[in-house]
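Quick start: what a row looks like.
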Amino acid sequence: MSLMILQPSSVIGKLVAAALNVVTLTLAREHVGKYWKRKKKIPLPGMGENNDAIGHTLEVRLNMLYLIGSWLGVAVLELVL
């Protein structure tokens, strides 16, 4: 495959970049989610940092979902326009 195809100005290059970002974000989201999947928030004194980390992880995963949607939107727009 020619390197010209992967230039940022080519349609295929933009689609490849979008696809790589979607795959990477999806894998990262799953990896982060698996860490806390079996852990529950603990209602005990002194466990606030642990509980905060779980909450912040959920926010990060949600942001990753928004980014995945954005990259899918970029790919669709690149195909349409």
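That is the whole record. The first helix runs from residue 11 to 37. The two ends are 24 Å apart (CA to CA).
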